[in-house]
Design goal:
Elements: H1 7-22, E1 30-41, E2 44-49, E3 54-59, E4 62-63, H2 72-83, E5 87-95, E6 101-107, E7 119-120, H3 121-127, E8 132-133, H4 143-159, H5 172-182
Parallel strand pairs: 3-6
Antiparallel strand pairs: 1-2, 1-5, 2-3, 4-8, 5-6, 6-7
Helix pairs in contact: 3-4
């Protein structure tokens, strides 16, 4: 039996469908509970869930200095101090070109052992001045996250902490480009 559908009901259905498409990924992501086994870089961790499955996680929303870059070691150490050996909630956003899960990683605040996992690890890196906010991918964040991340980077720059102590900090995406070009040199004929 077919039911007559009014024009206003059709418009409502279209609005709901559009709302689902426009909902930020943070609101419709998968979640995973895991323990941090390793901190590979200032924005990459290895976790293991209760089934003993390991995952390589790239923190969403930031880009940290590379290990051989200025402040790379400090960035990795700061993240290790916050996460290593701790239980985290991993809110999956997507998978990157390297097969890593890009996710928001939440941990208990270090000064509150009885609290829920409310500390955003990427935001902590920005607040410490040990990462850049990944502005090019901001559309993958909610407006609220964008505001927190932008302010955290701005505040770290203003206070000249972490990598912002440098007169001209070199962004990791530029550093990677420069390093990859070093491997491809052109031979000139004699």
């Amino acid at each position: 039996m077919d039911f007559p559908v009014s024009g206003s009901l059709r418009r409502l259905a279209r609005c709901l469908a559009l709302g689902c498409l426009l909902t930020p990924p943070a609101a419709r992501c998968e979640s995973l509970q895991a323990t941090v086994l390793e901190v590979a870089e200032g924005d990459v961790i290895i976790v293991m869930d209760s089934r003993k499955t390991r995952y390589k996680i790239r923190l969403a929303g930031i880009d940290a200095p590379e290990p051989r870059q200025a402040f790379g070691r400090e960035s990795r150490k700061n993240l290790a101090d916050l996460l290593l050996g701790r239980k985290v909630s991993v809110e999956r956003r997507k998978e990157d070109d390297y097969g890593r899960i890009v996710a928001r990683v939440m941990v208990q605040p270090p000064d509150c052992p009885g609290c829920a996992r409310t500390r955003d690890a990427a935001l902590a890196q920005l607040e410490a001045g040990l990462a850049w906010w990944y502005r090019e991918l901001r559309r993958e964040q909610s407006l609220e996250e964008q505001g927190y991340y932008e302010y955290a980077e701005f505040d770290a720059r203003a206070r000249r902490i972490g990598l912002w102590q440098d007169v001209a900090p070199f962004p990791p995406w530029e550093w990677r480009k420069r390093e990859s070009k070093a491997y491809f040199t052109r031979l000139t004929p004699h």
